[in-house]
């Protein structure tokens, strides 16, 4: 059918045997990733009346995940996805349930930090899905580019729908409803994803050496440093937006406003997957970061001009359009820089960088919006600028080269 011809690269992806099944259950496990943070912020701020505390608690959990995540991924590389995913997901779900109990029972504030830190065993389901595509499409780089774009669009879709669902549950039912629903969906999806043995990447024939793929790998370290700054952008943007919407008297709309940022990124990611870029990823990465840094100024400008929530929503939609191309290009670099046999760990290290940045951004954003209001949008703008500067400083490590100019 001619109208569907432009979508043929995506159709070919899901013609791969077993691809639809592992993708569907992975999406169920991944959707809660867009719910947990917003649900925790809404739940804790409603019970304790402090966005600073809510941001600090979520930051602690993300920081713990940044430490534990690579260790969990190393176990996945060594023992396989199925054997590690289920127990790791079960432990993380128990941490979320313990957080709900402590908030509902009015337990001391320190217990909230401990419970949220217990979710650190959350397996990187997005990374495991990318690892499956890397295995299935290892002989087809063009199809792998499309798969990476789809995975990034899937991430954005989860962060588009997740905050909306979390906000609806927390504000329409009761504050703990978002976390409870997210934990149930996550555990169900993770178990059913792990059951898809047909597409699971094989364990390396040689034992995985207990050394980090970062060792002696300055290029990978440079990309992860950029992801750290990018995560700070994401974390601060989420908390500041929730606080801003609350100050405007539209707290239930916070999830929908955040969803627009993810919607812009999701659409850009799908379109990017249809493209066949001529320049290498190392050359495209700083360009994508420059666009992201420029567009990150829009929310700050919109709120400074007094446009209110509608203007902010439009600014976030536009700002999101640089996110997916940046992340797809960055993940392409990570896949190329990670040694064989450590792919799950390498991609989890990328997510670890993001999570560590989100943790710092959440804490900084919570403090900024509580003390400076709409001016808190300076935090995500500064984080985006830092990502660009970090990539520029690491050009040599990444061997970034501009495309050759045509001869005169």
UniProtKB/TrEMBL annotation:
<dbReference type="Pfam" id="PF07690">
    <property type="entry name" value="MFS_1"/>
</dbReference>
<feature type="transmembrane region" description="Helical">
    <location>
        <begin position="374"/>
        <end position="393"/>
    </location>
</feature>
<dbReference type="InterPro" id="IPR011701">
    <property type="entry name" value="MFS"/>
</dbReference>
<feature type="transmembrane region" description="Helical">
    <location>
        <begin position="216"/>
        <end position="234"/>
    </location>
</feature>
<feature type="transmembrane region" description="Helical">
    <location>
        <begin position="254"/>
        <end position="275"/>
    </location>
</feature>
<feature type="transmembrane region" description="Helical">
    <location>
        <begin position="84"/>
        <end position="107"/>
    </location>
</feature>
<protein>
    <submittedName>
        <fullName>MFS transporter</fullName>
    </submittedName>
</protein>
<feature type="transmembrane region" description="Helical">
    <location>
        <begin position="177"/>
        <end position="195"/>
    </location>
</feature>
<feature type="transmembrane region" description="Helical">
    <location>
        <begin position="311"/>
        <end position="334"/>
    </location>
</feature>
<feature type="transmembrane region" description="Helical">
    <location>
        <begin position="51"/>
        <end position="72"/>
    </location>
</feature>
<dbReference type="InterPro" id="IPR036259">
    <property type="entry name" value="MFS_trans_sf"/>
</dbReference>
<keyword id="KW-1133">Transmembrane helix</keyword>
<feature type="transmembrane region" description="Helical">
    <location>
        <begin position="346"/>
        <end position="368"/>
    </location>
</feature>
<feature type="transmembrane region" description="Helical">
    <location>
        <begin position="287"/>
        <end position="305"/>
    </location>
</feature>
<dbReference type="GO" id="GO:0022857">
    <property type="term" value="F:transmembrane transporter activity"/>
</dbReference>
<keyword id="KW-0472">Membrane</keyword>
<keyword id="KW-0812">Transmembrane</keyword>
């Amino acid at each position: 059918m001619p109208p569907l011809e432009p979508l043929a690269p995506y159709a070919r992806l899901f013609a791969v045997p077993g691809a639809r099944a592992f993708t569907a259950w992975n999406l169920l496990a991944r959707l809660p990733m867009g719910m947990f943070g917003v649900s925790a912020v809404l739940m804790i701020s409603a019970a304790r009346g402090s966005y600073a505390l809510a941001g600090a608690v979520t930051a602690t959990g993300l920081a713990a995940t940044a430490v534990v995540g690579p260790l969990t991924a190393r176990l996945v590389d060594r023992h396989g996805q199925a054997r590690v995913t289920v127990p790791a997901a079960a432990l993380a779900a128990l941490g979320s349930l313990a957080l709900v109990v402590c908030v509902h029972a009015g337990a001391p504030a320190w217990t909230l930090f401990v419970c949220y830190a217990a979710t650190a065993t959350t397996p990187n389901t997005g990374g495991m899905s990318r690892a499956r595509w890397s295995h299935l499409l290892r002989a087809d780089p063009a199809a792998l580019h499309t798969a990476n774009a789809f995975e990034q669009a899937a991430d954005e879709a989860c962060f588009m729908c997740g905050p909306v669902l979390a906000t609806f549950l927390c504000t329409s039912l009761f504050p703990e409803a978002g976390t409870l629903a997210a934990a149930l969906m996550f555990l169900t999806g993770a178990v059913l994803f792990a059951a898809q043995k047909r597409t699971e990447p094989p364990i390396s024939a040689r034992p995985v050496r207990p050394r980090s793929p970062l060792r002696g790998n300055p290029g990978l370290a440079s990309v992860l440093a950029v992801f750290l700054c990018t995560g700070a952008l994401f974390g601060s943007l989420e908390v500041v937006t929730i606080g801003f919407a609350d100050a405007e008297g539209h707290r239930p709309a916070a999830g929908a406003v955040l969803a627009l940022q993810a919607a812009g990124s999701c659409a850009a990611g799908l379109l990017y997957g249809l493209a066949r870029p001529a320049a290498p990823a190392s050359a495209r990465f700083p360009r994508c970061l420059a666009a992201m840094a420029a567009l990150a100024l829009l929310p700050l400008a919109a709120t400074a001009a007094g446009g209110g929530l509608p203007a902010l929503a439009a600014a976030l939609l536009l700002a999101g359009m640089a996110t997916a191309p940046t992340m797809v290009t960055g993940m392409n670099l990570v896949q190329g820089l990670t040694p064989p046999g450590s792919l799950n760990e390498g991609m989890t290290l990328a997510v670890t960088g993001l999570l560590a940045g989100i943790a710092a951004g959440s804490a900084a954003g919570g403090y900024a919006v509580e003390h400076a209001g709409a001016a808190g949008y300076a935090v995500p703008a500064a984080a985006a600028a830092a990502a660009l500067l970090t990539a520029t400083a690491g050009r040599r490590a990444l061997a970034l080269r501009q495309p050759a100019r045509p001869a005169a």
